[in-house]
Amino acid sequence: MLKKYDKDGSGALEEGEWKEMKGSPEKTDTNGDKIITLDELIVAFGGTSGGSSSSSSKSRNSPVTARIGGGNRVSTLEEKLKDKGVSSKFISSDKNSDGNLQMSEYSDTWTDKMLADFDKLDANRDGVISPTEWVEGGGR
Fold this sequence. Notes:
Blueprint: H1 2-5, E1 13-14, H2 25-28, E2 35-36, H3 38-44, E3 64-68, E4 72-74, H4 77-83, H5 88-93, E5 101-102, H6 103-106, H7 112-121, E6 128-129, H8 131-136
Antiparallel strand pairs: 1-2, 3-4, 5-6
């Protein structure tokens, strides 16, 4: 499902990507953050995850423990982001481990330069920097 519906390649299904999904995606989004994570998908389909899917503070380093098919381990969010070329700065700044950077995660102190830097990376101007925006925008 993630490969089929994750149009922006963020590794999660944001609310805008739900429209083509069948069923009730809202029920799969157990923590109500309008983002369906891999852990939430696994739990929805009867698996178990490495963390509580109702919490937005999952550890990105703990692997998902569900077994799929032949028993392959599912990659952690950090592994997936690194595979996409996302820097460790992005990963460590992502405090809520949702795979995106909100303005509050990008910086604690806001100056005109900091805001301009954020805006340069936030290509679609939605207030969130996705991994794709980070890599394509030259985030360091």
